[in-house]
């Protein structure tokens, strides 16, 4: 058995690997960049090594530094986690050449599945069904157009070396093909250094079904059943579950059997995932589920498989890497209940999923659910890496009870001042269509307006906020229970001051009026007093259904409404200005794009808060800005 392990990753997956390794008696070594010097994975490991500046390309993506750290600390093996170098065959080979154990598949297996066209050809030879399409050597525009015409529209153009949703274009008609092809090739060349593409039939009612597979060095390969990852945003998974809703035993046997054949075709060792696309227009059917690609690593969503099988997949990885056979045979594995996972991000869905960064001064995760995270209270959300805060994982007897538990868990998340997508996750889980299992990969995009509409505090929240602020008590509290449950918990703590009180509030910068009457008074349980931070001199932080609200009194009684936004557009995070669409003196309308900021590996468009005139513009294309720097100021139209 491996005795010492270096984890070539950060955040939640590094903490996850450390937890299992420690339980197995294995010494753990973390690596960290400047930004992660005080991170949880660094504090959790037995030893930690600094490997460079904050940008990943100067630290976590530099294989030589990671191998040097392993040698310096006497590490016996390297676990890559997921992302970063986890599917880099050259790095895997360098680890092996350095005399270290690589906790992952053989480099040749990574290479075999790394290029989509070659992988599909290999799958066809292994008898694995693949999506109808073209993956030939002739990359001329004329040949690609002809193949797309023959397949029938809509089609999907995909970069051969693609991943993470990049280098993909959906084409609805022949007339749109040339432009989409050129765009896809440009992005593929910029992202992967390879502009080759393949063409696939676009599935109109697509489900993303994937199968967890595991192989060892003794020739054994098993599957640990399927997961459904159809709830996605921009090709990034949001909520995953296992098993897949609507999957009957015959279809499961066919799909999982195909996954095992796929793994055997590349002599696979370790944890891997075979991803399939399903045409679910007539339900899940074996003849309408096709191979897409293989992820030659542990997946972000692996906990849902662990929950339904009772298997620790990281433990299996370490045992297989140590040369042991798989701990269980196929006939010893079975599905127990249902599991779901929600990815909690530091972002604001109401503002185009703009990442939220900074210190986390208040953090409460829900009780009685599995939480996989890489942060604790008083940690920082860095602008340098993916903004995922945690994964909330629940297990239940059936799908509906599991969804209900996960919805409650998302509603109970409390984090500030950094904002999260918890309310968006809860809103998604509460959708009747989702509860019926009628999921598909385009659901979030199709319902984006309703799902991302900014949440508003309930009248009960506003009453408690108004009366507590007026009383000068500055209570921190949260609300999430039904009224009947609230009544049962009452302790007789009355906040209202007098009948017929009208309060003018400022809620997240916007004016709002709330009435508290003699017949509409509020009682608050002493147990609701929480330690949430105050902001300013006269405000409180309130949580409800996963959303955070900043509430202050404009005037205790009567008077004018509080001011609206002053029109100052501040940088939400450090970044680079890559586009400016207005000039000082321009007339703008609410929602109009003003400029684009590049940060956290993404582009963020900043828009006008209301109709008005650009009174001040402080940046130009190429400007590097810090968080909360003034970028534009808009004066409201009269």
Would you mind describing this structure in some detail?
- By secondary structure, this protein is of the alpha+beta class.
- It folds into 6 domains: 4-103, Rossmann fold; 106-131 and 205-336, ATP-grasp fold, B domain (D-amino Acid Aminotransferase, Chain A, domain 1, 2-Layer Sandwich), CATH 3.30.470.20; 132-201, ATP-grasp fold, A domain (Dna Ligase, domain 1), CATH 3.30.1490; 337-454, ATP-grasp fold, B domain (D-amino Acid Aminotransferase, Chain A, domain 1), CATH 3.30.470.20; 459-555; 568-636, OB fold (Dihydrolipoamide Acetyltransferase, E2P), CATH 2.40.50.
- Strands 14-13-10-11-12-15-22-20 form an 8-stranded antiparallel beta sheet. The protein has a 5-stranded parallel beta sheet with strand order 3-2-1-4-5.
- Strand 16 and strand 17 form a beta hairpin.
- The radius of gyration is 26 Å and the shape is globular.
- It starts with a strand and ends with a strand.
- The model is unreliable at 474-499, 519-534 and 556-564 (pLDDT under 50).
């Amino acid at each position: 058995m491996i005795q010492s392990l270096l984890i070539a990753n950060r955040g939640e997956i590094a903490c996850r690997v450390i937890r299992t390794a420690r339980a197995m008696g294995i010494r753990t070594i973390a690596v960290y960049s400047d930004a992660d010097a005080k991170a949880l994975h660094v504090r959790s490991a037995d030893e930690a090594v600094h490997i460079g500046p904050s940008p990943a390309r100067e630290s976590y993506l530099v294989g030589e530094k990671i191998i040097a750290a392993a040698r310096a600390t006497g590490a016996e093996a390297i676990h890559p986690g997921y992302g970063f170098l986890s599917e880099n065959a050259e790095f895997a080979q360098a680890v092996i050449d350095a005399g270290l154990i690589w906790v992952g598949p053989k480099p040749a297996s990574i290479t075999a599945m790394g290029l989509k066209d070659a992988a599909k050809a290999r799958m066809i030879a292994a008898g694995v069904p693949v999506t109808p399409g073209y993956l030939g050597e002739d990359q001329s525009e004329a040949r690609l157009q002809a193949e797309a015409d023959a397949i029938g529209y809509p089609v999907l153009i995909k970069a051969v070396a693609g991943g993470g949703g990049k280098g993909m274009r959906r084409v609805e008609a022949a007339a749109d093909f040339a432009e989409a092809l050129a765009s896809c090739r440009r992005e593929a060349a910029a992202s992967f250094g390879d502009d080759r593409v393949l063409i696939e039939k676009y599935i109109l009612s697509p489900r993303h079904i994937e199968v967890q597979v595991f192989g060892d060095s003794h020739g054994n390969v098993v599957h640990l059943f399927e997961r459904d990852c159809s709830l996605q945003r921009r090709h990034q998974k949001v909520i995953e579950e296992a098993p897949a809703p609507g999957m009957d035993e015959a279809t499961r046997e066919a799909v999982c059997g195909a996954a095992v054949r796929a793994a055997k075709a590349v002599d696979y060792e370790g944890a891997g995932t075979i991803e399939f696309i399903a045409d679910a227009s007539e339900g899940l059917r074996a003849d309408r589920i096709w191979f897409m690609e293989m992820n030659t690593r542990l997946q972000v969503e692996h906990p849902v498989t662990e929950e339904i099988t009772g298997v620790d997949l990281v433990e299996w990885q370490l045992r297989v890497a140590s040369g042991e056979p798989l701990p269980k045979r196929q006939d010893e594995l079975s599905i127990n209940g249902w599991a779901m996972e929600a990815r909690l991000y530091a972002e604001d869905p109401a503002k185009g999923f703009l990442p939220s960064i900074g210190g986390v001064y208040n953090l409460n995760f829900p009780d009685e659910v599995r939480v996989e995270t890489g942060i604790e209270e008083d940690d920082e959300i860095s602008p340098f890496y993916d903004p995922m805060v945690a994964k909330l994982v629940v297990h239940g007897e059936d799908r509906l009870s599991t969804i209900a538990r996960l919805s409650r868990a998302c509603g109970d998340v409390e984090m500030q001042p950094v904002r999260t997508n918890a309310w968006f996750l809860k809103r998604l889980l509460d959708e009747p269509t989702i509860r019926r299992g009628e999921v598909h990969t385009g659901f979030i995009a199709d319902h984006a307006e309703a799902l991302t509409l900014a949440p508003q505090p309930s009248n009960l929240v506003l009453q408690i906020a108004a009366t507590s602020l007026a009383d000068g008590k500055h209570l921190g509290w949260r609300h999430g229970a039904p009224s009947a449950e609230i009544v049962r918990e009452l302790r007789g703590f009355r906040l209202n001051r007098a009948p017929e009180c009208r309060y003018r509030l400022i809620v997240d910068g916007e004016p709002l009026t709330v009435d508290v009457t003699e017949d509409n008074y509020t009682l608050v349980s002493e147990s609701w007093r929480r330690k949430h931070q105050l902001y300013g001199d006269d405000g409180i932080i309130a949580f409800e259904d996963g959303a955070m609200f900043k509430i202050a009194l404009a005037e205790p009684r009567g008077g004018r409404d509080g001011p609206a936004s002053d029109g100052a557009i501040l940088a939400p995070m450090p970044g680079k200005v890559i586009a400016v669409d207005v000039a000082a003196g321009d007339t703008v309308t609410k929602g109009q794009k003003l400029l684009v900021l590049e940060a956290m590996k993404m582009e963020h468009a900043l828009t006008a808060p209301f109709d008005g005139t650009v009174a001040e513009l402080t940046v130009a294309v190429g400007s590097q800005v810090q968080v909360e720097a003034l970028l534009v100021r808009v004066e409201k139209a009269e």
